[in-house]
Amino acid sequence: MTIPAERDDNSAMSALEPRVVTVIGAGTIGVSWAALFLARGMRVRVHSRRPDARGAVTGALRLFAPALPGGPAEPDALAQRLEIEPDLERAVAGADVIQENVEEVIGVKRELFARIERLASREALLLSSTSTMLPDDLGADMEDSGRLVVAHPFNPPHIIPLVEIIGGQRTRQQAVEDAVKFCMSAGKSPVVLRKPIAGFAANRLQAALLRESIHLVREGIVTMAELDEVVTQSIGLRWATTGPFLAFHLGGGAGGLAHWLEHLGSGLEEGWKQLGQPAMDDATKRLLIEQADSAYGSRSYERLVTERDERQLSVLSALAAG
Amino acid sequence: MTIPAERDDNSAMSALEPRVVTVIGAGTIGVSWAALFLARGMRVRVHSRRPDARGAVTGALRLFAPALPGGPAEPDALAQRLEIEPDLERAVAGADVIQENVEEVIGVKRELFARIERLASREALLLSSTSTMLPDDLGADMEDSGRLVVAHPFNPPHIIPLVEIIGGQRTRQQAVEDAVKFCMSAGKSPVVLRKPIAGFAANRLQAALLRESIHLVREGIVTMAELDEVVTQSIGLRWATTGPFLAFHLGGGAGGLAHWLEHLGSGLEEGWKQLGQPAMDDATKRLLIEQADSAYGSRSYERLVTERDERQLSVLSALAAG
């Protein structure tokens, strides 16, 4: 469900201007959110008890500054709107939005949201970056979890547009709408799932493709590097510009999807039966680790990430200009 | 298997300069190949018995001219190196490469390759664009199918780089290497499959993602348009720049894939068990057709294809410049 609101149209959230956003956790996702929110002009408090939290966030600001939305940013200017606050009570006091990014352990998150409920403003919107848990579970220890929404980004949040928005049985519709507006004001592309489902949507699709990728490597059809080449040179390019259903619709020619299904629909189901069901046994893990090392082991993590993000930004710029 | 040859390095194929390429069939794939080969400076003969074959090819040249590799082309200039030849014997006489693109009916293709064997030069490289058949089957009625190779493009061939190259038990290694060099000289990114497999690689991956996409729509998690938005705003963008295995490797942080598998490998297998297995029954087909109509039915096929190709080219240009 995409809610047709103008970007930056936050009339329904006027209480959020000027916004204070509290980011809970200074791991990979937390620091990327913090950099994005700062680049979008928000005041950001990062709550973390890591002794190196300030270094982690300012390091991320320097690393991400060239790639932030709106063009290259000056890390020191961004940091003027940044606070690091190891005390949870002070971190959430007066915050309009609280984005949680702690470890994926249900007990830790439940206890955290119960504490936040007692410490934060009654109006604060509570968001979780969890990729695996649902709002009703996250809010099980709260008195009222009606303002708790999952806002699951795709890594890294400061670059990839999608945020999956998931409400629970106890989530108020207004909170879901506020989460959508907040994500849009941060320049993201929120998509609301109409029902909760394990793994949400994007990670389930990713798992489906990865399963067949692992099958093809295990069967010796292609190496890992060749499989990556197959994807980046065909379906990846296609899906960056055209979703799988629109591609399918256009594959039917002027007759569209109906024509395609009539002529090839049964072949699709036959093809599904032949897809692989690899086991992730020790031999498979060893094979994958060996091939990853052979394909990518000679380049450092930082270099590969920088190259990935540069390519990603150039693609996003090209699509935005088109 | 990618063979590390320079693009345009055709020293081993000097007999192919200046190249005459015969394209058999003037359907969607045939006319796209013809436009590409013309844009790359080759002489092209299109064999088709369609009375409107010349119109189909010149119409395609006009439609594709703005999007051809090497920048916008002048359709009339390209057409100077084009012949339309309804007689098979004259069409293949003296051709260096013959690219077959007729209907996906094994009997039709077998008979065609047996006739081509008798009519073409002994040195001609024989390529098939089939997406479903293997070289040994295609060449079953030939005396010697050692020079027959599957060179399966991703639609449209004049834009999408990947060509999957598949040899059979009877295919000579030299023919596979020549097919790779020919595809590179046409500006494509060939990947040789190390073993034949039904559906080859890219279409199997596509089928795996489409199956889960259909599952999510059938379950009412998202609509078709929302599913397309999820993909184009996350995994599609990612896979245009970074293959699934490299993404997976980087998802493990500095510890790479080994770290990821150690901590999350079992979750991956659990996730696979929860993926959907939709039936393509009549209710599902009706749902998909209704949603395609609602999402995309208001725009014409030509407009949607033009928009798709424009976005695709801008992404390819951005990646080439990066």
Straight-line distance between termini of chain A:
25 Å
Beta-strand portion of chain A reads 5-15%
Total strands of chain A: the figure is 8
Q: Major sheet of chain A: order of its strands?
A: 3-2-1-4-5-6-7-8
Residues in helices of chain A, as a percent range: 40-55%
> What kind of sheet is the major sheet of chain A?
8 strands, mixed
Give the SSE map:
The structure is a homodimer of 322-residue chains.
Chain A (H helix, E strand, L loop, with lengths): L19 E5 L3 H12 L3 E5 L5 H12 L10 H5 L2 E3 L3 H5 L4 E4 L5 H14 L5 E4 L6 H4 L9 E6 L8 E5 L6 H13 L3 E4 L9 H17 L5 H9 L2 H7 L2 H8 L4 H18 L8 H15 L4 H21 L1
Parallel strand pairs in A: 1-2, 1-4, 2-3, 4-5, 5-6, 7-8
Antiparallel strand pairs in A: 6-7
Structure description:
- The structure is a homodimer of 322-residue chains.
- Chain A has 322 residues and is of the alpha/beta class.
- The first copy, chain A, has 14 helices and eight strands.
- Chain A has helices spanning 28-39, 53-64, 75-79, 88-92, 106-119, 135-138, 173-185, 202-218, 224-232, 235-241, 244-251, 256-273, 282-296, 301-321; strands spanning 20-24, 43-47, 82-84, 97-100, 125-128, 148-153, 162-166, 189-192.
- In chain A, strands 3-2-1-4-5-6-7-8 form an eight-stranded mixed beta sheet.
- In chain A, helix 1 packs across helix 2 (53-64) and helix 11 crosses helix 12.
- The longest helix of chain A has 21 residues, at 301-321.
- Chain A is globular.
- At the A-B interface, helix 8, helix 9, helix 10, helix 11 and helix 12 of A face helix 8, helix 9, helix 10, helix 11 and helix 12 of B.
